[in-house]
Sequence to fold (152 residues):
Amino acid sequence: MEETSVFEKFELHLDQSAKDFLKETAKWAYFLSILGFIGIGLFVVIAIFAGAIFASMGNTMAGVGVFAGSFGAIMSFFYLLIAAVYFFPVYYLFRFGSNAKRAFRENDSEALTSSLGYLKSHYKFIGILMVSMLVLYALIFMFAILGSLLGR
Fold:
């Protein structure tokens, strides 16, 4: 005879206040994702214009050297990189908001499950991004200390 655990028998039911909280969260997530997509678009536009502006600034400055014209391309690359990295959490947030709104509108459990999966992906991406940024900051800090010790 096979026994099932308590967790396998567990079925979650949401009361009305929990549903209202999720509905409001979905609306705000959808709104913030739209603002995020607008921000990504601005980053792409800035990348295009920053490349031209910084390239012309580099060419007019004296003493910058041979790489003066490539500074604009470097700035464009970094702005596009930031836009690309920022796209994924905004996309996950958008999918969470739109699927959760649809789930409550159509009373669809599968859409709610899908939306919560996108919310998990959003926070997972943000968490990995934060850990990698902390590692990058720690490396920069260690190399700065090493550079100052070797510079003496």
